[in-house]
UniProtKB/TrEMBL annotation:
Family listed: Belongs to the plant LTP family. PEARLI1 subfamily.
Keywords: Signal
Protein name (record): Bifunctional inhibitor/plant lipid transfer protein/seed storage helical domain-containing protein
Keyword S-adenosyl-L-methionine: no
Length: 115
């Protein structure tokens, strides 16, 4: 009986630790699970949105890179690309980030800042 109780206590302790570390690592600024350099295709989307052109900007290559990501991950990826100027465009970071996320049906997470 004592070994059962000890095993249960150890298992509970490990589960709580795993949950704690998952929550702590997930609450930060977010990290990008994609190669930010590939997000250079999003420059075409921004150019199409900012320059008044006929038709719609080519969103498929950019948005397909963000598919499967939660809003925080997508924001972190685009923020990284924008900060590194991978897109080759100097723009207002919050506005550019918001435009790109909106085009790809994502939202800027509440409190997220791309500094």
């Amino acid at each position: 009986m004592a070994s059962n109780k000890a095993s249960s206590s150890i298992a509970l302790f490990l589960i709580i630790n795993v949950l704690f570390f998952a929550l702590v690592s997930g609450c930060g600024g977010g990290s990008c699970p994609r190669d930010a350099l590939k997000l250079g295709v999003c420059a075409n989307v921004l150019n199409g949105l900012l320059n008044v052109t006929l038709g719609q900007p080519p969103v498929t290559p950019c948005c397909s890179l963000l598919n499967g990501l939660v809003d925080l991950e997508a924001a972190a990826c685009l923020c990284t690309a924008l900060k590194a100027n991978v897109l080759g465009i100097n723009l207002n970071l919050p506005i550019s980030l918001s435009l790109l996320l909106n085009v790809c049906s994502k939202k800027v997470p509440h409190g997220f800042q791309c500094n």
